[in-house]
Amino acid sequence: MTARPWMLYGAYGYTGELVAREAVRRGLRPVLAGRRREPLAALAAELDLPCRSFGLEELSGRPELLDVAAVLHCAGPFLHTSRPMVQACLAAGVHYLDITGEIVVFEAIFRRDEAARVAGLVLLPGAGFDVVPTDCLAKRLAEALPDADRLELAFTARGGGTSRGTLRTIVAGLPHSGAIRRQGRLEPVPLAWEAREIEFGCGRRWAMTIPWGDLATAYRSTGIPDIRVYTGTPRAAIRRLRRLRPLLPVAGTRPVKGLLDWWVRRTVTGPDEARRAAGRSYLWGRVRNPAGAERTATLETPEGYTLTAAAAVECVERVVAGAVRPGAWTPSLAFGAGFVEELPGVEAGPISGGS
Questions:
Q1: Backbone angles phi, psi at 248, to 5 degrees
Q2: 3-class DSSP assignment, residue 154
Q3: Judging by DSSP bridges, how do beta strands 6-9 and 31-34 pair with one another?
Q4: Exposure string (b/e) for 299-327, b if CB count within 10 Å is 16 or more?
Q5: What is the rounded radius of gyration, in angstroms, for the C-alpha atoms of the chain?
Q6: What is the pLDDT, as a whole number, of residue 1?
Q7: What's the CA gap between 80 and 326, in Å, rounded?
Q8: Which of 52, 104, 62 has the alpha carbon at shortest distance from 79?
């Protein structure tokens, strides 16, 4: 019997195309899918892959997913697109993976854990740079200090850039601009709420708090109740962002968000191949227990979109192969804290702070 293929939805988007090309490089033949027929057909013809054109609103009661084993969902903003695809996958008996970094999306998918177990299916959000490296780093540190009650994660980059889809996701989340997890609860905080210097593998950099997906995933992976996530940002830029705080309510109105989304769709592409090849990402993490003991570690990976393509394809291959039990999982719970270190170009630093 021929194994069922998996589907890549959002294949002609910036990240989706990188994932499609990575799959072909590995000798895989996913079904490419998306809403717009013309760019989808062009990519499918170039890569000699099958394709299907349909919108998410067309999924109910239709057969598009019935002959695939899994869907790797790459069409954001996931705040708007994940729910109908998750529902369709559960109804069709299809595993679901995505590359989201949105806290509310993670939380919503984790609430479907029991439904996934009953259906015998895997739900695995965050199969890309958001949040594979940070989630694995968090899990590794938590295993090194099992009674930790505070977790800090941070990342910065050299080279690379931002895609249209990533910026559209940021716009979709406005006016919400900051968050931490305190005593197990998600807590909104102002834009650039806390800033500090962090010793990354590439040197000391300023960084500020952001509402990264690990506020959902690292909490699920480790159970640590207090979590903060930072991104490397020049100190002058942090000061400028703090001055923008009074404008955020206006930025979150429908007309302004619509205008920003229009501008992003027409002006932003993403880093080209040369910038991706030259770019590197640097991660840092620290856990602390009530007695004040600490463990820290660093991680270095390829540029974020390059890592996303490699990680997402690896995740879907393992899920389709039956390597993950049914349920809703984070990457580190599905594959272990060492999963990110198995991806090409990743270098993990030692854990420090132990006796």
A1: -60, -40
A2: strand
A3: parallel
A4: bbbbbbbbbbbbbbbbbbebbbeeebebb
A5: 20
A6: 40
A7: 25
A8: 104
Q: Which helix (H) or strand (E) holds 70?
A: strand 70-73
Q: Where are the beta strands (DSSP E) in 210-352?
A: 226-232, 280-288, 294-302, 327-328, 347-348
pTM of the model: 0.92
Cα separation values, 302 from 51, 115, 166, 277, 310, Å? 29, 35, 18, 8, 10
Residue 339 DSSP label:
G
Task: Compute the distance between CA of residue 275 and CA of residue 232 in angstroms, rounded to an integer.
Answer: 18
Burial of 141 (0-12, 13-18, 19+ CB in 10 A): buried
pLDDT digits (tens, 9 = 90+) for 191-230: 888 999 999 999 999 999 988 999 999 999 999 999 999 9
pLDDT tens sequence across 49-95: 999 999 998 887 668 898 999 999 999 889 899 999 999 999 999 99
Distance of CA 103 to the CA centre of its chain: 10
Cα distances from 294 to residues 152, 351, 353, in angstroms, run 11, 10, 6
In this structure, are residues 24 and 47 in contact, taking their beta carbons and an 8 Å threshold?
yes
Burial of 55 (0-12, 13-18, 19+ CB in 10 A): exposed
40: Cβ–Cβ under 8 A, 6 or more apart, which residues?
Answer: 11, 12, 32, 33, 34, 51, 53
**Within 10 A of 89 (CB to CB), how many other CB atoms are there?**
26
**Positive or negative: CA dihedral 118, 80, 301, 22:** positive
DSSP 98-118: E----HHHHHHHHTTHHHHHH
Q: Would you list the DSSP string of 170-205?
A: HHHHTT---EEEETTEEEE--TT--EEEEEETTEEE
Tell me the C-alpha distance between 263 and 130, whole Å.
Answer: 24
Q: How far apart are CA 247 and CA 260, in angstroms?
A: 14
